[in-house]
Amino acid sequence: MTYLSADERRRVIVDAAVRVIATEGLAGATTRRIADQAGVPLGTLHYCFRNKDELNLLILGRGHATMLSAFEGLDREAGFEATVREVVATYWRWIRDHHGLHLSLMELLMWAIRNKEAVLPGRDVWAEVNAPFGGDLIASALAAAAERDGLRTAVPVPELARFLIHRMDGLVLELAETSDEASCERQTLLLADALVLLALPRQGSG
Amino acid sequence: MTYLSADERRRVIVDAAVRVIATEGLAGATTRRIADQAGVPLGTLHYCFRNKDELNLLILGRGHATMLSAFEGLDREAGFEATVREVVATYWRWIRDHHGLHLSLMELLMWAIRNKEAVLPGRDVWAEVNAPFGGDLIASALAAAAERDGLRTAVPVPELARFLIHRMDGLVLELAETSDEASCERQTLLLADALVLLALPRQGSG
DNA sequence: GCAAATGTTGGTCTCGTGACCAAGTCATGT
DNA sequence: ACATGACTTGGTCACGAGACCAACATTTGC
């Protein structure tokens, strides 16, 4: 095994861990299996990480970062409706192509929620792990698009972003349960429609 | 310990298991803890259930049944919009008041998905566990309400029902992550609005 | 080119925990 | 009193986490 800096080695192990957890689930992602997948002895793993909690958090971070990268190709010139549809479609494609991983990230998220205090005493797991992703990227993309259109949305953009993100969370379960890609894809179209309708100023109310 | 029929004993244990899983999570719901909570020795638990998988499935079923009962008071005379809002509000109240349980049910669901073949070889976990709940109850309530209004929805009612159910799934995570009830409640209002907008026949398209 | 720091190996040990089972005991109806 | 079903006890077996270690390899600074 080649010589790597501890940082590089950590990267390699976390990558392997992401692979393991995507296929085996959180419960099946034992330190031994991860070490095995990374091609390093167990001792190395304990040399690189204080404990499994630390590793888990890094997996969560890496997973979200991977997801983030799916949104890099977003068209930053498009109008509001086009942007909504593009974000939803991109998100959907990512889930479809990585649903094992996304499911596991949800398991990890639940784990983090349940072990908040033990894992990150006093800190806000959610804000730390997710805000850079959902909170910023999607909300700001939508806000910028709305601004380009001179659109003052009927519902605040951050609320629309959360609506989008968490409907997609539901979709992960839906896909895992039914394995019906066509139906799930139809749901994403529905979601895009809904977001557009919610955003447009309405006749009836303010 | 009093003598009970095996069926009664099973009921008691499943009840205890639901309590344990709601507070400790799936990983923390060990046979020992469950037996402890039920006030029976560990052996009794293995006397009553073939194995833990069987118990898990029963917990899942009980959890969903509990949830089902929240919808018993639905107004079966109301129109479409009122029914949508009532279903969403009822669902939301249940989640808010039982979010530990709902979170655990999602963990169990993931477990069932990952162990499909081992647990229910050949059978469809999802259809068996969830269809009686979401698929039937909510979809049929909405369909009946639409019919009362003479409303031919722009989107098929079953799709609206799935949209509703899985947006609520996302909400469970959202609530667990943020603990921000007010924000989550606003999201439910948004969801109801979206469903109504999606259902109404639109000007632009067919 | 040498020494010190850093990373690697592979193995072992303990500790806790989890699922599960076999053989026994007890209650209850007949 | 005795058969049967209901429960108890005490254990087995497997496995994961985490810690430790002693020798070995590779860099890096000097």
Automatic annotation (TrEMBL), chains A, B:
InterPro entries: Homeodomain-like_sf, HTH-type_TetR-like_transc_reg, HTH_TetR
Keywords: DNA-binding
Annotated signal peptide: none
Start and end residues of each HTH tetR-type domain: 7-67
Pfam name, any one: TetR_N
Keyword DNA-binding: yes
Residue ranges flagged as DNA-binding region: 30-49
Protein's UniProt keywords contain DNA-binding: yes
GO molecular function: DNA-binding transcription factor activity; transcription cis-regulatory region binding
Source taxon at top rank: Bacteria
Full protein name: TetR/AcrR family transcriptional regulator
Gene source species: Nonomuraea longispora
